[in-house]
Design a protein that fits this description.
Keywords: DNA replication, DNA-binding, Nucleus. The protein is built from 12 helices and no strands. The N and C termini lie far apart (90 Å).
Amino acid sequence: MATFEKSVTEVSKILGISNKKVINEAIDYLTRLRTKATFKTKNELPRIVICLNISANNANEAINIDKALKLIKYGKVKYCNEKNFLLRILDIEQTQSVESVCNALKLTKVKDVEKTATKLLERLKQSEMNLGEISHLQNICMAIYQSCKLLKVKVVETQLISWSTLRRNQWTKLKSLWCLLLTERKVESTPIVTSPIERSVIENHAIEDYTVWKKRILDKARAKLALSKEHRKTRSGKFY
C-alpha cells in the first residue's frame, strides 16, 4: 500500500471508520486536492481528517469529532471553517435528509425528532420567511436542532454546525431567524412522553396551525398600523 493511502487508513482507524467505500472516497478527494497548487505546501493531516469526515457524511456515518479535533489540534470553529472551505474547493454539495442526519447523529427518540423536524420544515415552507431552499442542508440541520430543543433530546450543536457546512456566525444568524419563526408560531417546548395518546396530542398541537397563526399575525399587523396612524394624527395636531 502506498504511503499516502496507508496514512488515510491509519487515520480512519483512529476516527472509528471501517467502511472501505468511505476511505476510498476520502482518498479520491485528497488526490484531487493534491492537484491544486494552493494545497501542495499545506499540512496534510487536517485534510485527511476532514476528507474522511466529508466522505463519512456522504455515507450517512458519523465520526468521532472530539478525536478528530484532538488529532489535528483544531478548535471547533476552525475545523468547521476548514471543512466548508474544502467542500467549496472540491465543489461538493452534500445532500441529506432529516432521517439520514438524525441516524448519523445517533439521537435518542430519533423518530420523534424526525417527525417534529419535518413539521418545522413544513411550517417554514408555509411561512413568508426567505431562508433559501427548504431542503437545503442548513435548514435540515437547524430543524433537527430546534426539534431536539423542543423535545429535550441531547444533541451536540457543533456536530450539526459541521453537517450544515455553515460557519459559526452564519449558524448563529440562522438560529436567530429560526427562533423568531418559532416564537411567532408559539411552538410549545413540550417534553417527550411515552403514552401514544399523549404523543399524538403533542404532534397535532405542538405547532400552531398555519391558518390560525396567519390570522393572528395579520390582526396584530392591522392593529399596529392603526395605532401608528392614530399616533401620527396626535403628533400632527400638536404641531399645528
